[in-house]
Amino acid sequence: MFDFLKRNQPSPKQIDKLVKRLTEPGGEDGPRIEAAEKLSEWGTAEALYALLKRFTISSKVITGDIEEKRMVVRMLVEKGKKAVDPILRFLGDHHQVEWPVQALSEILPREELVPKLVDILEKVAASSEFTPPEHKSDLIRAMRGHVSPEIATVLRRFLSDDDDDVRIAAIEAISEVGEEVREPLLEAFLEAGDRPRIRIKIAEMFADHEWPVRGYRPKIEETLPEGFHLTSKGVVRRR
Q1: 26 φ, ψ (degrees, to nearest 5)
Q2: Considering only Cβ atoms within 10 Å of each terminal Cβ, which end of the chain, N or C, has fewer?
């Protein structure tokens, strides 16, 4: 039985051949779709990981590209728990993660999803200096809609990242938790004296949510970016 199953497993060479077709951005969509369908049909961990590589390219026709990516999400969701490990592996290796996180969120209930997202974020945070900024920022943006207090705790580690885009992605994601993240964001504001984009983003966030700067008023009032001011109640307003 084992030998029979082994004979029916796709070889690395067969998978690589289909990946080349799957990730060809030009030409007709037929070959890409056929490659995706075959990888889904094989359904092994390596085949599903290869299927995820469709998210690493964009085809020339935007509407068609989106529909193909939705199709791949459906294929992954249909595989259920079998697709979880390949998706998690992909999240650690690639920065085009919005669609894979969407698939994962449809496969797993929230109580299982959040720990998986926390784990992948912690791994990226731990190797932050070796991880490309676009990988970090894309992964953080993919958290939007799923941010829990546990995820927000890990995201706080990115508030001091060397890259502004990574910090801004973290600021936007963390704000989903609500006013309880007020103090970490105010601390990040004060630490960003040489980063005007960060200060503007945090000022915008506080103005949009009407969060007070209680406990930080003197320092914040001295350093607010041009175009913002504090009300008598310590709320940031745009001028």
Answers
A1: -95, 180
A2: N
DSSP per-residue codes, 131-152: S-HHHHHHHHHHTTT---HHHH
Q: How far apart are the first and last CA of the chain?
A: 74
Kind plus residue range of the DSSP H or E element containing 25: none
- Which tokens go with 166? 């990574």
Cα separation, 186 vs 223, whole angstroms:
11
- Encode pLDDT of 91-104 as tens digits: 998 989 999 999 99
Token pair for 46: 């390596």
pTM score over 0.85: yes
Distance, in Å, from the CA atom of 44 to the CA atom of 59, rounded to the nearest integer, reads 26
Q: Which token pair is 230?
A: 């504090």
Distance CA 146, CA 54 (A): 23
* Domain edges within the chain: 10-79, 179-239
